[in-house]
Structures are given as structure tokens and as C-alpha cells.
Amino acid sequence: IRPYPEMGKHQPAIIHEFIKGLWEENPVLISLLGLCPALAVTNSAINGLAMGL
């Protein structure tokens, strides 16, 4: 007898929620990506072009 028989039915939803929390709705990741232009300081145009790609 399984203690939680309904757990197998919700497995794709759990994985989707985990991925959504990790990539789609992660405030730390969004804040870090928002800081990228402010942190991209260089002393040459070639390095700036490389950071832009």
C-alpha cells in the first residue's frame, strides 16, 4: 500500500513548477541579468563587442 497514491499523477506538474521557479520566475536571476549592462565595463571597443555578443 502506497501512503500517497496520487503522487504519481502530479509528477509532470511538479517538474514544471521546479523549472518555472528556477528559470522563469527567479527574482535573483532576473536581478542578476538586470545588472549585466551596469557591470559590462571595458577599456577597448573589441572587448566591448565581445561582451555584447
UniProtKB/TrEMBL annotation:
One of its GO terms (cellular component) is endomembrane system. It is found in: Endomembrane system. Signal peptide: none annotated. The keyword Metal-binding does not apply. InterPro entries: NqrDE/RnfAE. Keywords: Membrane, Translocase, Transmembrane, Transmembrane helix, Transport. This is Electron transport complex subunit RsxE. It comes from marine sediment metagenome.
